[in-house]
Structures are given as structure tokens and as C-alpha cells.
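FW: tagging you since you asked about this chain on Friday. Here's the raw sequence from the shared folder, copied in full. Didn't touch anything.
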Amino acid sequence: KRVYNPPFPHEKAVAIISEGRGSHFDMQLVILYSKADTSNRRRIAAGFPELAAAYNDWFESKGVFTLEERA
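HL: got it, structure written out here
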């Protein structure tokens, strides 16, 4: 969930990332992700909260958001 919008369905998020490859998103990562099958995509996405928690201090230092704001 994002503070300024309701959450997107997973499939819509994947489409947005695919459309933005090379401009907003790292092309190589998008290509690797797109080659993963659906079960692996869901497994990768399940790790995002842990990744966000690991970088929470960085997000806060940049004024992006805190994990509490995202909840």
C-alpha cells in the first residue's frame, strides 16, 4: 500500500515496471524478473517488505517515507 494511492494488483505493478524499463527501472533487473515464472515472481515480491525494512534508515534519511507511513 502506498500512502498517496491504493495498492496496485501485482499484475498491474509488473506492467508498469515493464513499461518503464530503461527509463525508470534498471533494464537488466526488469529483464531478469520478466524471465522468471509466475511462482518465482511471487516469491521475489514476497521479499520486498524485508528489503524495505533493511533500507528503512536510507528511506527515512532521503525523506522518502518510513515503514510506519507505508503500513
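FW: Helices lie at 10-19, 27-35, 38-46, 48-54, 56-61, 67-70.
HL: agreed, and The radius of gyration is 13 Å.
FW: great, closing this out.
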